[in-house]
Amino acid sequence: KVPMLARAGTEPFDSAAHLFEPTWGGLRALAFVGPAGAAGHGAVRIIDGDGREVGGALPELAGMGVRIDARSAILDGELVAVDDAGRADDAELRRRIAGERGRAVAFLAFDLLHLDGRSLLSTPLHKRRALLRKVLHPGDEVVAVPAIAAEGRALHDAAAAQGIGGVMARERTSPYLPGV
């Protein structure tokens, strides 16, 4: 699997046809949970956007399966280590992935691609996000990134004021297109 790709926009915009999500600028990754005999018991593999297994260096994410109310799931998101101010710390993330000790890394989920063996790739984004909120029980190691409907400019201004990496705009009815 490869993640769906983002492209840079020219300026913030508002649109009722889009969902807007903050992005911390961490490392894009897919989290594979399960399969397991019962919900919440699946093993976790974390694969970065280049297809490399990075979860082995991040033991704090190994138990993420207990946060997923499903026997198996594939989540799309980003890995982030944050500094004391709550901003993404890329150097710390690189050190952690290299196997060094340091601050905990979290998986910030913004999409649900498969659930209990069923592909959701052709399901519209807003329905995938609703399922993500239903099956993911947030904790220190994993959260669902909130999405704001229509108000991209306001979210961009808030993200910029807080020093957050940026904002991603995605069409509400879009399917998930790996590698596109």
Largest sheet: 6 strands, mixed
Low-confidence stretches: none
Helix content: 10-25%
Q: What class would the helix/strand composition place it in?
A: alpha+beta
CA(first)-CA(last) distance: 12 Å
Note the total helix count: 3
Task: Give the helices and strands as they follow along the chain.
Answer: EEEEHEEHEEHE
Spatial extent as radius of gyration:
16 Å
Q: Report the mean per-residue pLDDT as an integer.
A: 93
Beta-strand content estimate: 25-35%
Task: Characterize the structure shown.
This protein is of the alpha+beta class and 180 residues long. The chain contains three helices and nine strands; from the N terminus they run E-E-E-E-H-E-E-H-E-E-H-E. The strands form two sheets. Strands 2, 3, 4, 5, 6 and 7 form a six-stranded mixed beta sheet that branches. It has a three-stranded antiparallel beta sheet with strand order 8-1-9. Strand 5 and strand 6 (118-119) form a beta hairpin. The longest helix has 11 residues, at 125-135. It is globular and about 45 Å long. 38% of the residues are buried. The mean pLDDT is 93.
Descriptive keywords:
180 residues; alpha+beta; six-stranded mixed beta sheet; 9 strands
